[in-house]
Amino acid sequence: MIARNYFEHNSPEVERRSIECAARVFVCSGRRKPGLAGTTGTLDEVQVVESQHVDLFVDTGIHDRGHRTTMLDAGFREVGIGIIRGAFTDSGTTYDSIMQTQDYATSPVDSPFVLGVVYNDVNHNNQYDYGEGTANSTVSLENVVKTTNDGGGYAFQVLQAGTYTLRFVTGHTQLITIGMGGPNIKVDLVNGTTVVINLGLGPLR
Question: I need a surface site. Which of 88, 145, 167, 196 has the fewest CB within 10 A?
Fold first, then answer.
């Protein structure tokens, strides 16, 4: 969208609603239009991206709360998020902008994922924030080994029902029982000492 200078749910060629989009351009004038804000000043990338996510999740002013219901749809197992910064031109004015897309999907196999993040809660607010993730940390589910990405995230797709051992590089382990058709399970390692399941809610049924 940045490269082609458009902001829509659909590409100019495709007539289908396939992506949920947010864009913030941050303009000193406070000029606004549906789904787009901006400034010719300097962007705070972290603040912008976090506010985009909040805007989509809360979906204030959207009559059917379409973004929020998509994000909470239990039929989706996977999300792909794209965030890019660049120049966006609107009505003859070019703005420094950040655009974000969120694509949701479930594979035909419809098998659950064990996923999570390894992070240090530096600001002690009991949640993951930008810059707290631990990259290149080893996580294994039985004999499958993954390395956390730059943000500290990892994911395993589980193709058979059973009880599995999730192991972190610190030696912390968590037994996880997977049923086919059951929900994804989020398991975080916080401060290298605490395993948190589904943000503290425990197994979801």
Answer: 145
